[in-house]
Design a protein that fits this description.
6 strands; 226 residues; Type-5 uracil-DNA glycosylase; 6-stranded mixed beta sheet; DNA-deoxyinosine glycosylase activity; alpha/beta; DNA damage; metal ion binding; binds iron/sulfur cluster; Uracil-DNA Glycosylase, subunit E; Uracil-DNA_glycosylase-like_sf; 39% helix
Length: 226
């Protein structure tokens, strides 16, 4: 199994009727400021280092972000925060991520969305989450031999990461460890770190600050290089 072959199959997926409708409707109607652009409007594959030491698990593509650019966390406000922080801790070549040909490159890091299509209000249903989970399972199975640290963004990413890790044969304790910002769990050879999602809901309100984000990603960097 290769990541390229996986992405090729993924982008053809139409398993969730509501999300297919939404991603395509957004891509047709567009936001006025992006009216000249051709939206991606399809499932968004994982992106970054194909043999990553750090795997970042987010929620789902933003309607006018990754659903527009086709690259995870690229072209939206959450991505602005995330890539700036990744750059500060040495995991991204440049501090911005605006377009697939912007020269951005992740260092030892890969990022994926737990649900691969943009959902209305950024809220996938439980059925959509479960329907999409096999794509994360497949990607994790390919990269897991390299991964030392999983960073879960938000409670949704945390649950998705733990579920996928459990299915990949990693020993996940029961009851499952709880999500929190800065939560750190050792799972055999792996570390799982929790981080508030850099959504506008969290960054506008000050619930997540730049130093808080840098702290978790800096910790991930140190753990990955130990
Ligand atoms: Fe397929 Fe996942 Fe998109 Fe559902 S969310 S259509 S399972 S890629």
């Amino acid at each position: 199994a290769s990541l390229v072959a996986l992405a090729r199959r993924l982008v053809e997926c139409r398993a969730c009727p509501r999300l297919v409708d939404w991603r395509e409707q957004v891509a047709r109607e567009k936001r006025a400021s992006f009216a000249d652009e051709t939206y991606w409007g399809r499932p968004v594959p994982g992106w970054g280092d194909p043999t990553p030491r750090i795997l970042i698990v987010g929620l789902a593509p933003a309607a006018h972000g990754a659903n527009r650019t086709g690259r995870v966390f690229t072209g939206d406000r959450s991505g602005d925060w995330l890539f700036a922080s990744l750059h500060r801790v040495g995991l991204a070549a440049i501090p911005t991520s605006t377009h697939p040909d912007d020269g951005q490159r992740l260092v030892e890091t890969r990022m994926v969305a737990a649900v691969r299509c943009a959902p209305p209000q950024n809220k996938p249903t439980t059925i959509e989450r479960d329907t999409c989970a096999p794509w994360l399972d497949e990607e994790l199975a390919i990269v897991l031999p390299h991964v030392r640290v999983v960073v879960a963004l938000g409670g949704f990413g945390w649950t998705a990461a733990l579920t996928a890790l459990g299915r990949a044969g990693v020993d996940v304790p029961a009851p499952r460890p709880r999500f929190g910002h800065g939560a750190e769990v050792t799972l055999g050879e792996l570390s799982l770190l929790g981080c508030y999602h850099p959504s506008q809901q969290n960054t506008f309100t000050g619930r997540l600050t730049e130093p808080m984000l840098d702290e978790v990603l800096g910790r991930a960097t140190r753990l990955a290089r130990m």
